[in-house]
Design a protein that fits this description.
The protein is mostly helical. The chain has one domain. It contains six helices and no strands. Helix 2 crosses helix 6, helix 3 packs across helix 4 and helix 4 crosses helix 5. The protein is globular, with a radius of gyration of 14 Å. 35% of the residues are buried.
Length: 137
């Protein structure tokens, strides 16, 4: 069996850092840098909520979203943009509407794949988190 990634251990598939009082946060936060959620659906909810805030601020392409999500001072942002756009099968500068489930779902899956090196989550878990964020199929 493959060891769990940090995001998987923390039920935080997007690897969100501490800073917000998210719904579903675990009472104890053992990771000094990244949030720990009681269930992965809450990690997906938080990831989707961040993407919805980005939308409201005008970040609406894979490029602008990933540049905000994973800034170059911490990441190889160009590689991240390429990986997410490739997984989604779109150009990095294509405009997205993350309120549309058919666009949010593949974006979330691509971010999770890049953050964790894989996406081992059941669609039902992802969908539960997106529904909690108000994005429905």
């Amino acid at each position: 069996m493959t060891a769990q990634t940090r995001g998987e251990r923390n039920n935080n598939p997007g690897n969100l850092r501490h800073g917000s009082n998210w719904q579903g946060l675990a009472p104890k936060q053992p990771d000094p840098d990244f949030c720990t959620f009681t269930d992965a659906k809450y990690g997906f909810r938080a990831l989707a909520k961040v993407l919805l805030v980005y939308r409201a601020k005008g970040f609406d392409t894979v490029r602008t979203i990933v540049e905000r999500w994973a800034p170059p001072n911490e990441n190889n942002t160009d590689a991240y943009v390429s990986a997410v756009a490739g997984h989604m099968g779109c150009d990095p500068d294509t405009h997205l509407d993350v309120m549309d489930y058919t666009q949010m779902y593949p974006l979330v899956c691509a971010i999770v794949r890049h953050e964790n090196g894989r996406n081992n989550y059941l669609r039902s878990t992802i969908d539960a988190g997106l529904a909690l964020a108000g994005v429905l199929p």
